[in-house]
Design a protein that fits this description.
With 192 residues, this protein is α+β, with helices and mostly antiparallel strands. The chain has five helices and eight strands. Helix 1 crosses helix 2.
């Protein structure tokens, strides 16, 4: 596993994933102040001042020694507009495991962008960082995320009852995971 201080931008056919910058504030605010975006999250919606504080903190992660948190802007290559966030959270060096997370503005749901974001996170995790295992958690009622994770090859590993308090209510969550060897087989299947 490699420790990378500054992550190079990653591109898909229509999107880029890159480190956050302060000029992302307006797009990030539009995203994180939207109640639909933060419905299954423990925080938000947020005001602009809260988002600026949060954005500065996330940018500060970029200069940490032994960095473990990578919060990325997800943007449209055609316009440079930031339409989402992606996360890679390395758990520890020994397990070579990281959690991924993602969200997009609702204007960009049901477009295939979510799949591109997760595929890019898989590439970053398994190829750039050479991790062994990636996992994602999502609310059991978040059908979009559940279906997306299954579609890209994640396995359901767990169903946690009332394990996360979201806006005053205890929520049930799924745990999905994918091993590097599963990703490699999926990307490069053996020929018969």
């Amino acid at each position: 596993m490699f420790i990378i201080a500054k992550l190079q931008p990653t591109e898909t056919s229509r999107l880029f994933l890159r480190e956050l910058i302060e000029n992302d504030l307006d797009d990030i605010y539009a995203l994180k102040s939207n109640p639909e975006v933060v419905f299954y999250l423990t925080w938000g919606p947020s005001n602009k001042e809260q988002k600026l504080t949060s954005l500065k903190k996330q940018i500060a992660f970029q200069s940490e020694e032994n960095r473990k948190i990578y919060v990325l802007a997800v943007g449209l290559k055609s316009t440079n507009k930031v339409i989402g966030n992606a996360l890679l959270l390395i758990k520890d060096d020994d397990s070579e495991t990281a959690e991924i997370g993602y969200f997009l503005h609702p204007d960009y749901w049901h477009t295939g962008y979510g799949k591109e974001v997760v595929e890019a996170l898989l590439m970053i995790g398994f190829r750039t960082f050479e991790l062994h295992r990636l996992f994602a958690r999502c609310d059991v009622e978040n059908a979009g995320s559940v279906n997306l994770l299954k579609k890209v090859g994640f396995r359901l590993e767990g169903h946690f009852l009332k394990d996360l308090k979201v806006k005053g209510d205890w929520r049930n969550n799924y745990l999905f995971a994918l091993l590097k060897e599963e990703y490699s087989v999926r990307k490069h299947p053996k020929r018969a």
